[in-house]
Amino acid sequence: MVTSATLRSYLHLHFLVLIWGFTAVVGLMVSVSPIVLVFYRTFIAVAGLAIVIWVKRKSFSVFNNADLGKMLLTGIILASHWILFFASARVSTASVCLAGMATTSLWTSFIEPFVNKKPVKPLEVALGMMAFAGLYVVFRFEFNHALGLGLALASALLCAIFTVVNSRLVKRYDGFVITFYEMIGASIFTLAFAFVARWQAWTPESPIWPAAADWIWILFLALVCTVYAAAMSVELMKQFSAYLINLTINLEPVYGIALAFFFFGEKERMTSGFYLGTLLILMAVLLYPVLSRWQPSEKSVSGS
Fold first, then answer.
1. Closest to 102 measured CA to CA, from 142, 136, 141, 146
2. How far are the Cα atoms of 124, 169, 214, 271, 283 from residue 287, in angstroms, in the given order?
3. Rounded distance, CA 105 to CA 129, Å?
4. What per-residue confidence (pLDDT) applies to 304?
5. CB–CB of 35/83 below 8 Å?
6. Which of 50, 134, 147, 283 is deepest in the core (most CB within 10 A)?
7. Contact yes or no for 190/38 (Cβ under 8 A)
8. Does residue 283 register a pLDDT over 90?
9. How far apart (Å, rounded) are the C-alpha atoms in residues 117 and 119?
């Protein structure tokens, strides 16, 4: 039986996914390159998280250098995921980018059992493949956005790795502390990457310093989507498996596509095939909590 506390946590997770669905829209509203955008996002997030940890009187310490290294490295994975995510939206549309992210659960269904040394669950693979079938339908009808879909697929793979690694770290550390060190790793990586990109002229037309209007969206990404949403999602990993979290994140295209159409109108209108594929993704999300009730209960599902 689902308790009220579990229901609140699940609704909280959906609220976080709604916030993340808005990030692709935000990425199209700023003038800086995806690399620079992720740098400002993570750099400001470090300051915000430091304040939160200090106010809550939490400890900044970690048990050993190995764990610290894992957090910093995971931050680099997260930064790479965000760079590819925003780049996908830039070269295609926010809707295509979000649809490609729906394969996160498919990647997770293979990565999580491998990392945790557990057998692959047929149900998770089947629903992941269903989500992937939805992506295939999208790809068939939106072939002109192949590059954007490819970048989104790579971003989804990195997102799956990031979530699985965090699901192990959260068993020993507070979510805000984990996110704090990950943002440090991400900001150092993106700063170095931004200099290399400028030196190699990969982003010659993109400014380094954001325009005045950009700061509103950058602060939203840093404080709402990162300090709040990212840290809270890590905390929710104590209750839910990485697979369930990433499967719920598949709703990000649904929320994001609706938001993109609201902000950009006809530019984000897609073919009927696109929406059919998105419907398959939504069905995979809704079927998981129903079908999983008939699966043998496992300790890992509760996030313990």
1. 136
2. 11, 28, 39, 25, 6
3. 9
4. 26
5. yes
6. 134
7. yes
8. no
9. 7
Contact assessment for residue 227 and residue 183, using Cβ atoms and an 8 Å cutoff: no
Instruction: Give the integer Cα–Cα distance in Å for 90 and 71.
Output: 29
* The Cα angle at residue 296 between residues 294 and 298, in degrees rounded to 5: 130
Tokens of 57: 């009187």
pLDDT at 47 over 90: yes
Instruction: Please check whether residue 157 is in contact with residue 107, taking contact to mean a CB–CB distance below 8 angstroms.
Output: yes
* 265 CB burial (10 A radius; 0-12, 13-18, 19+): exposed
Is the predicted pLDDT of residue 44 greater than 90, yes or no?
Answer: yes
Q: Which two tokens stand for residue 230?
A: 């990212």
> Token match 């839910």: residue?
240
Indicate the pTM of the whole model: 0.80
- Helix, strand, coil % in the chain, rounded to nearest 5: 80, 0, 20
Average pLDDT estimate for 90-112: 80
* Confidence bin at 163 (pLDDT 50/70/90): confident
Say if CB 214 and CB 59 are below 8 A apart. no
What is the C-alpha separation between 75 and 65, in angstroms, rounded?
A: 15
pLDDT exceeds 50 at position 299: no
296: confidence class by pLDDT, cuts 50, 70, 90: low
Burial, 163: exposed, middle or buried (Cβ in 10 Å; 0-12, 13-18, 19+)?
buried
